[in-house]
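Quiz preparation item.
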């Protein structure tokens, strides 16, 4: 290995060593990740990006109506957060929608003859897309009135009444609730 300062491998090794061996002040100056020690950790920026992305996604999704805004906000939060840990652990609305599309008829409260696209999709979306707006330890019962308001604003042509939709919303909420 060439030990000249211009050698790329040597510079990378020096950078890694500097981060590992640095004092707390140097680590702060490098904005090092507290877990990995890698420079350039930006949790606030990731959060701002996620918030901005959520707003942009909601605005774009609004073209497709209230349900589009709800799902667009969830997608935007994931995309806006970029490579941040919070975004990486965030839900994927496409995965959730696919899961519920395949499983909605297995819901013990499923109303025979009701359709996923018309009746159930918006209910499940209210559950999974709103979950990340609340603390990890938030209970469904404590925010139920807010979820009901969200349901009323996005239900569109769904034939589900609140008492029927509530079960689907709760299942989606529980599925994405952090352990």
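Solution:
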């Amino acid at each position: 290995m060439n030990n000249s300062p211009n050698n790329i491998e040597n510079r990378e090794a020096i950078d890694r060593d500097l981060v590992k061996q640095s004092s707390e002040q140097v680590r702060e100056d490098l904005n090092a990740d507290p877990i990995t020690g890698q420079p350039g950790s930006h949790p606030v920026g990731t959060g701002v990006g996620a918030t901005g992305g959520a707003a942009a996604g909601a605005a774009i999704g609004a073209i497709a109506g209230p349900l589009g805004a709800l799902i667009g906000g969830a997608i935007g939060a994931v995309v806006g957060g970029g490579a941040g840990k919070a975004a990486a652990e965030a839900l994927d609305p496409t995965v959730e929608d696919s899961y519920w599309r395949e499983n909605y008829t297995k819901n013990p409260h499923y109303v025979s003859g009701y359709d996923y696209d018309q009746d159930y999709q918006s209910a499940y979306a209210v559950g999974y897309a709103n979950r990340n707006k609340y603390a990890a330890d938030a209970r469904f019962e404590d925010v139920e009135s807010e979820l009901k308001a969200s349901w009323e604003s996005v239900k569109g042509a769904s034939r589900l009444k609140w008492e029927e939709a509530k079960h689907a919303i709760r299942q989606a909420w529980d599925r994405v609730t952090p352990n």
